[in-house]
C-alpha cells in the first residue's frame, strides 16, 4: 500500500509539473487535438525516427531521456543524428526501441518531460494509453517517405515547429528538402537514353543480401534513374523494400549496380558484398565484370535517414551522369547536407563505419 501511495503521489506531482497554467492545442498527425504547454523545455522521443526529427530542429538540449536504441553500442550504427550527438548515449532510458515505452520509467525520470513525441503510432505502446498512464501529452508524428510521401514528413515538421515554437526552422527544413530535390531533378530530367541500374543490399528491419532492393529507391527517383526494379505497379503500391528475382536480374543485366553498405553487417562470408564476389549468377553480370559496382551509404536505419538519402542521390547522379555532376565534390556535398540538418559534418564518420567503401567503386577482387 505504501508503494502504491508513493507512486500515486509521484504521479500527481508529475501532473503538476508537466502542465503549466498556459497551454495551447495542436492537431497531431492522426488528427487528434492535443493540449501542450506553450513553452516546452523538456521532451522525449518515442519510435523510429522521432529523435532524428527533433535533432533536425537543433533541439537536442530539450531531450531528457531516450529509448534503448540510443544507448546501444554496435560496430555498425549508421544514424548520423546519433553520431552528431554522443550525449544521447548517456541520457536515462525510458523504454525499449520501436516505441515500446515504459510508463513507470517515464514517471520515474528525475527530469520529467512535458511532451512525448511518438512516430509509428501503431508500433509499440498505444499513444492514447501512454498519455493516460503518464498524464503527459503524446504528439503523434507521421514519418512518410521522402520520395513518395513528402507531405507526411512536412506536416510532422510543422507540428514539431508549432509545439516547440520553432516554426521558422520547420519551414527552413522543408525549403531545404525541396531545393535539394528540385536541383537533382533539374540536372537529370531531360537526359535521354538513361543507363539502367539496380541497388541491392537494402536493409529492412535488419541487414539483407544483394537481392534486397527498393522499387521506389529515393536516390533513383530524385535523379530520374532507370531503376530496373521500378514499375508502374510498385510505384502505386509505394513499396519500400522487396526481394528481386536473381533470374530477372541476370536477364535485365543493368548497366550499373549500387551496393547499400548496410549489408556489411552480415559479416564475413555473408551479405551482398560476399555474394557479388562469389555467386556465379552475380559474377556473370556485365556491371560486375567491368567494375561498375558502387557503394552507397545505408539510410534505412531506425527508419529513413533523410540526409543520407540526399547524399546518396548526389552520388548516384554523379555515377550515372558524370557530365551533369562534374562540379560536385561528394564528400563536401554530403557534409553540406549533414551540417544543415544536424549542425555537424559526419560524412567521414559514416564512411569509416562501413570500411571506407561509401561513394567509391566496390572492390570485388581480382577477376
Question: What does this entry look like structurally?
Answer:
With 367 residues, the protein is α/β, with parallel strands linked by helices. The chain has 2 domains: 2-176, Rossmann fold (3-Layer(aba) Sandwich), CATH 3.40.50.1980; 192-353, Rossmann fold (3-Layer(aba) Sandwich), CATH 3.40.50. It has helices spanning 2-18, 50-56, 80-84, 103-107, 127-134, 150-164, 167-188, 218-222, 232-237, 246-252, 271-278, 280-283, 286-289, 306-320, 330-342, 347-353; strands at residues 23-27, 33-37, 43-46, 63-67, 93-96, 100-101, 115-119, 138-141, 196-200, 212-213, 226-227, 242-243, 256-260, 293-296. Strand 1 and strand 2 form a beta hairpin. The N and C termini lie far apart (74 Å).
The gist of it:
The protein has 367 residues and is α/β, with parallel strands linked by helices. The chain is built from 16 helices and 14 strands. A 6-stranded mixed β-sheet has the order 6-5-4-3-7-8, with helices on both faces.
